[in-house]
Specification:
heterodimer; A: alpha/beta; Fumarate Reductase Iron-sulfur Protein, Chain B, domain 2; Rossmann fold; 3 domains; four-stranded parallel beta sheet; 25 helices; globular; B: 234 residues; mainly alpha; Fumarate Reductase Cytochrome B subunit
C-alpha cells in the first residue's frame, strides 16, 4: 500500500496552516500550536518574575552562567539539527534558539548585562521576544543531538526545557499537553488518556482472551498484586493503541514466571512535565512513587516509551529520595536480561522481513539503552539492518519533546521535523520499523503515511509476541493429552 | 618611546596579567561554587563520571570530531588554538623574559618551528574569519566579538613576526614592539570578560551540563509559594 507522495506545493500549503492566523487572532500570540486563553497583559514582567522564581529554587543558574561565558557561536550545531537541516531557516539553529533565552538572562540577571542595558537603553525583554520564544522553543524537538557536537558543551535541550518551563508559568504551553496533564493530576481517571479503571480491566481481560486463543497459553495481566517484583507503568495510550506491545510484554513475563503487576490506583507512565514544566514533572513522578509504595513493589518497570523511561529513571531519584528511590528499569532491559539467561525463547523463522531499529532520543542520547534492543532483535530477526547514524547520534523521529501530541502541527512534524528521519527509513527499505516509544510510534506512523513510505511501525515486543516460544508445560492440554501425561 | 616601552613592559604588563589571572580565577571559582551549591541541593547525586571525563577529554583534544562536521573550519580552528597556546608560551624571546623575572626557564621552540607556527596561526585566523563570514549559519549567529577576536589576537602575532623575522630598523622595531605588547595586554584584560573565558571554563562544560539536569527536590511547592500559585489548578 503506497500512499501518494506530498508535492512541494502541498508541503508549503500544509506548513502555512490556516490555524496560525486563527490562533493569532484569538490569542494575540504568533505561534502555530493552540494555547488556552490566558492573560496577555504585562507579559514581560510576569515572565521575568517566573524566571527569577525558577532561578532561585532550581539549579539552572549554574548552566546559564556557564553557557553565557563559553558560547563561541561556531554553528556546528546547525549541521546536526534535523529541524534546521529541513527548514534552512537560521532561526532554527539551536544556538540561536538558546541565545533567545540566554540574552534575557544576560540582560536581566547579570550585573554586566544590567549595566550595559541601562547605558544603552536597549535589550529589554519585550512582548515580541516572548512571542518569538513561544514559537521557537516548540519548533525544537528537544532531541539534544546538538549537544553531542557542541565543543563548548552547551546543552541546548536544557535551555529549551527551561524556556518552555518559564513560558508555561505565564500560561503559554500547548493546550494538548496541558489538558492531558490536568486529567492526569486532577481528573477523575488520573491518566492522560482518561481511561477509567473498569475500562482498563475490561481491555486487559479482552487481551487475555485474545492471547489464549492465539497462543494456547494462559497469559495474565496481573492487577494490584501486592509485593510484586515489578510495578508496571506503560505509556497509558498503549492500552488503547498498542495492544500488541502489551501482549508481548505479558507473554515475556508468562514465559519467565517473574512477578509483575499493574496498579489500578495509577498506571500511567507518561510524563508531559518533562516537556513543558518541571513542577508537573515532579508531581507526576511522585504519583509513580506513591503507587509503587502502595503496591509494596520492588522496582518500577516502564513500558516501551522513551520519555516515560527517562523521566522515571532520572527524576524519580531526584524527587523521591535520591539513593533510596525505587530502581527504574525499561522493559527492554528486562527482556534482554531474560533472553541472555535463556529464560526466553524466540523462533528465528517467524520474522523474515527486513527489520530496522529507531533509537528513541530519550533513552539513547545519554547512552542508556542502545545495544540491548539490537541484541534482542538480532537474536530472532534474520534480516536486521541498521540506520545511519544510529545509537547516541541517532536522528529524532521529528515528534520529540512533546510536539507529537500537538495535532495542529502534524504537517510541520511530517514534512519538516521528520524529513531526515523519513530519508533514513527509505534508505533501509525496511518492512518493520521498530520504535520502542509511544511518541516515536505515533510520529513515525504519521510520517510514513504522509511521506508515502511502505513500512509498518511496530514496538519491539510486538515482534517478540509473534516469535515467542512457550515451554510445553505452559500450554493448556486437550483432555486426551492430559490423560496420556498422567498415565506416563 | 623608550619610556613608554618600559612602562608597558613593566608595571602595565604586571597589572594586566594580574587582571587576567585574577579574573579567570574568579569565574572559575564562581563556576565551581555554583556547581557545589547545585550538587548539594540536587535530589539525585549520581553523575555519569566516566562519560563526563571521556567527553571532556574528547572536546579538549577534538581530533576525532574534526571530520564529522565543518571539517575545513574545524582544522583551521584546531591549528589556530595550537598556535595561540604554543607560540606565546614557548617562544625563546618570551622564555628569556620569564626567566629574568621568575628565575627558571622552560623548554623553548626552535627558531624554524616558531616561524612556521606563527605563519600558520596568522593564516588560520584569516581562514576562520573567512569561514565565519562565508557560512550562512555561522555568519547569522556571529556577534561583533566573534569577528573582532581573531583580528585582535592576530595583532601580537603579526607585530611579533615583523620584529623577529623581518629585520626592520630600530625605530620601526620599537613601534611594532610597543603595539605588540599593548595588544597582548589588551587581550589579557579582555579574556575574563568575553567568550575567551572558555580557556579555563571549557574543562568544566560537560560536568556542568550534566549537573544542571540534577534538579533539587520539592521545587514545585517552593515555586508555587514564590509565585503565589499555591492551590492553583494545573
Amino acid at each position: 500500500m503506497r500512499t501518494k507522495k506530498i508535492t512541494t506545493e502541498e508541503r508549503e500549503k500544509a506548513f502555512k496552516s490556516l490555524r496560525k492566523s486563527e490562533v493569532n487572532e484569538k490569542q494575540k500570540l504568533h505561534v502555530r500550536y493552540h494555547v488556552e486563553d490566558y492573560e496577555t497583559n504585562d507579559r514581560p514582567r510576569r515572565f521575568l518574575e517566573a524566571f527569577a522564581a525558577i532561578l532561585k529554587h532550581s539549579n539552572y543558574r549554574l548552566a546559564l552562567e556557564h553557557f553565557i561565558r563559553v558560547s563561541a557561536k561556531c554553528s556546528r550545531c546547525a549541521v546536526t539539527c534535523q529541524v534546521y537541516q529541513a527548514t534552512g531557516d537560521e532561526k532554527d539553529i539551536p544556538c540561536y534558539r538558546s541565545e533567545l533565552l540566554l540574552s534575557v538572562y544576560r540582560r536581566h540577571f547579570t550585573v554586566g548585562g544590567m549595566l550595559k542595558g541601562r547605558l544603552s537603553g536597549k535589550g529589554w525583554l519585550t512582548d515580541e521576544k516572548i512571542e518569538e520564544m513561544a514559537e521557537s522553543f516548540w519548533n525544537c524537538t528537544a532531541c539534544r543531538r546538538c549537544n553531542r557536537d557542541c565543543p563548548s558543551g552547551i546543552d541546548h535541550g536544557l535551555i529549551t526545557h527551561l524556556g518552555r518551563y518559564i513560558l508555561a508559568e505565564i500560561g503559554i504551553a500547548p493546550r494538548a499537553l496541558v489538558v492531558s496533564t490536568r486529567e492526569q493530576l486532577e481528573g477523575a481517571t488520573g491518566n492522560t488518556s482518561a481511561i477509567p479503571v473498569p475500562a482498563l480491566v475490561d481491555t486487559l481481560q479482552f487481551l487475555e482472551e485474545d492471547m489464549f486463543e492465539e497462543k494456547g497459553v494462559t497469559i495474565k495481566f496481573p492487577m494490584d498484586v501486592e509485593g510484586s517484583e515489578y510495578v508496571f507503568f506503560p505509556a497509558v495510550s498503549d492500552f488503547l493503541m498498542e495492544a500488541e506491545t502489551l501482549m508481548g510484554i505479558a507473554a515475556v513475563f508468562t514465559a519467565t514466571g517473574d512477578s509483575w503487576t499493574t496498579g489500578t490506583g495509577y498506571f500511567d507512565g507518561i510524563n508531559y512535565g518533562l516537556f513543558y514544566s518541571d513542577r508537573m514533572l515532579e508531581r507526576i513522578v511522585k504519583k509513580i512513587d506513591a503507587e509503587t509504595r502502595r503496591l509494596k513493589g520492588k522496582k518500577v518497570l516502564i513500558g516501551e516509551c522513551g520519555h516515560a523511561s527517562r523521566s522515571a529513571k532520572y527524576f524519580l531519584p531526584a524527587y523521591c529520595g535520591g539513593k533510596d528511590a525505587y530502581p527504574v528499569i525499561n522493559i527492554m532491559e528486562y527482556t534482554w536480561e531474560v533472553l541472555k539467561n535463556g529464560c526466553l525463547k524466540l523462533d528465528p523463522n517467524i520474522v523474515t522481513e527486513v527489520v530496522t531499529y529507531h533509537d528513541p532520543c530519550n533513552i539513547a542520547r545519554q547512552g542508556w539503552i542502545i545495544d540491548k534492543p539490537r541484541e534482542i532483535l538480532k537474536a530472532f530477526c534474520k534480516n536486521y539492518v541498521e540506520m545511519t547514524p544510529a545509537g547516541q547520534d541517532n536522528i529524532c523521529c521529528g515528534g520529540g519533546g512533546g510536539t507529537v501530541s500537538i495535532d495542529e502541527i502534524r504537517p510541520y512534524r511530517t514534512t519538516i521535523g521528520g524529513k531526515l528521519k523519513a530519508d533514513q527509513i527509505r534508505a533501509t527499505g525496511c518492512k518493520y520499523l521498530v520504535a520502542p516509544c509511544a511518541n516515536c510510534k505515533k510520529q513515525l506512523r504519521e510520517l510514513v503515511e504522509d511521506q508515502g513510505i511502505d513500512c509498518e511501525v511496530v514496538g519491539l515486543h510486538d515482534l517478540i509476541y509473534k516469535a515467542i516460544i512457550f515451554d510445553d508445560a505452559l500450554k493448556v492440554k486437550t483432555p486426551d493429552e492430559s490423560e496420556k501425561m498422567e498415565k506416563e | 618611546m623608550e619610556q613608554l616601552l618600559d612602562f608597558s613592559k613593566g608595571p602595565l604588563f604586571r597589572l594586566t596579567f594580574a587582571i587576567m589571572v585574577l579574573g579567570l580565577a574568579r569565574i572559575f571559582v564562581l563556576d565551581l561554587y555554583e556547581a557545589y551549591r547545585a550538587y548539594r541541593r540536587a535530589g539525585d547525586k549520581t553523575l555519569p563520571w566516566k562519560q563526563i571525563t571521556l567527553r571532556s577529554l574528547t572536546w579538549l583534544f577534538p581530533v576525532r570530531q574534526v571530520f564529522k562536521n565543518r571539517p575545513v573550519y574545524s582544522v583551521f580552528s584546531i591549528l589556530f588554538h595550537i598556535g595561540l597556546l604554543v607560540v606565546p608560551v614557548f617562544l625563546y624571546a618570551h622564555v628569556i623574559l620569564w626567566k629574568d623575572d621568575l628565575g627558571f626557564g622552560i623548554p623553548t621552540l626552535p627558531y624554524q618551528w616558531a616561524y612556521g607556527l606563527t605563519v600558520l596561526t596568522i593564516v588560520s585566523a584569516l581562514a576562520l574569519i573567512i569561514g565565519r563570514a562565508a557560512s550562512r549559519s555561522s555568519s547569522f549567529l556571529s556577534r561583533k566579538q566573534d569577528y573582532l577576536w581573531p583580528v585582535v589576537l592576530l595583532i601580537p602575532f603579526v607585530t611579533g613576526f615583523i620584529c623577529a623575522h623581518l629585520g626592520v630598523g630600530p625605530r620601526t622595531y620599537q613601534f611594532f614592539m610597543l603595539v605588540h605588547i599593548l595588544a597582548a595586554e589588551l587581550i589579557f584584560v579582555l579574556i575574563p570578560f568575553t567568550k575567551i573565558a572558555h580557556c579555563v571554563l571549557m574543562p568544566l562544560s560537560q560536568f556542568i551540563a550534566n549537573l544542571a539536569w540534577k534538579f533539587p527536590p520539592d521545587t514545585d511547592e517552593k515555586i508555587c509559594i514564590t509565585l503565589n500559585k499555591k492551590g492553583e489548578p494545573v
